[in-house]
Amino acid sequence: MTDTDRTAPSGPLDGILVADLSRVLAGPYATMLLADLGAEVVKVEHPGHGDDTRSWGPPRAGGEAAYYLAVNRGKRSLAVDVKDPDGLAAVRELCARADVVVQNFRPGVAERLGLGYAAVRERNPAVVYCSISGFGPGHVPAQRPGFDLIVQAESGLMAVTGEPDGAPAKVGVAVTDVLTGLNAAVAILGALVRARASGRGEHVTVSLIGSALSGLVNLAQQALVTGREPGRAGNAHGAIVPYQVFPTADSDIVIAAGNDTLYRRLCAVLERPDLAADPRYATNPGRVEHRGELVAEITSVLRGRGAEEWTRLLMEAGVPVGRVRGVLDAIRTADAAGDDVTMTTDHPTAGRLDLVRAGFRLESQADDAGAVSPPPLLGQHSASVLAELGFTAEQIGGMIDRGAARQATP
């Protein structure tokens, strides 16, 4: 397929076509990462309401919800009704031509539509087909909804998040969706390598619950090794001291003295050699055992100066330290420091739009960093995609007239 509307950075996935039948966060995040790597991603949406996140506002920019804008750059929007015979035929044809298909329908829906793995593979043997679900294909009951909040609770993530004497707390972002999107993208890339080499496709399954549990890493292993539930450590670390938030004279900072050498450097900056010499604190196990006393001593010193001064002094000494920032402050600070975390694109209704880049960089894409198409309007590319799929202008016009397709005008 080709598209004269598309201006996306070239990359290692040039020539790869992705049929994105997913919605909300995990699937769209995965396909956005593939688009960032150069893939052509066609986002299939309902012509009436589109992706659920289009309505998840305010805030909005140019009428588009910020939530939707966060995970849909670099894509084309095909808005068709799969309950219409022509709309369903278009999506089936798209899947037959795609290198990758990503879907997160409720269990059984894709199969009923003739869009399940078996049906797509019959026409497209080399397809990499990714199914994303909340609780996995074998989970009982099969119809259980898999929203991030539910999975944070069911995975134990909430149980280990929050203050030790407080209630369990969720992470401030839908982190199980984000982990699932990352896992999906990694698995798809691995399957693509084999598909290109052998011509054999792959059915990739990714779940929020699996992603959340694997994302617990050391805490999950701790539970398996000890047979006990890990506790909550709040803004501290259960196994390292000092490794937590500390108040200063004006705002909070985080100090991460992860080994004995860093701890001694911290004591030197604090001008407290006695804390370094105290045998109770000489090693990390001792510091963990005497956490309360040591944290109180460090806190009393840190309250004497402001966060900016302490951050400068600790950084100069090589002690890991950071300010506790708000999101906007963090983005602006990272950009100002040269981390290049944002990109700007021209959106048809929002105008110049700032977006947050993916967490990776490819040297080969450095010159194309700004060449990304904005998150599309609902149905912005319907007519062009349908034409590429073999539909005539008359057929496309009829679909639009009866509401089976939608063509947005930028």
UniProtKB/TrEMBL annotation:
Keyword Transferase: yes
UniProt KW keywords: Transferase
UniProt-listed Pfam families: CoA_transf_3
MF terms in GO: CoA-transferase activity
Transferase is among the record's keywords: yes
InterPro entries reported for this sequence: CoA-transferase_III_domain, CoA-Trfase_fam_III, CoA-Trfase_III_dom3_sf, CoA-Trfase_III_dom_1_sf
PANTHER family: SUCCINATE--HYDROXYMETHYLGLUTARATE COA-TRANSFERASE
Protein name as it appears in the record: Crotonobetainyl-CoA:carnitine CoA-transferase CaiB
Organism: Marinactinospora thermotolerans DSM 45154
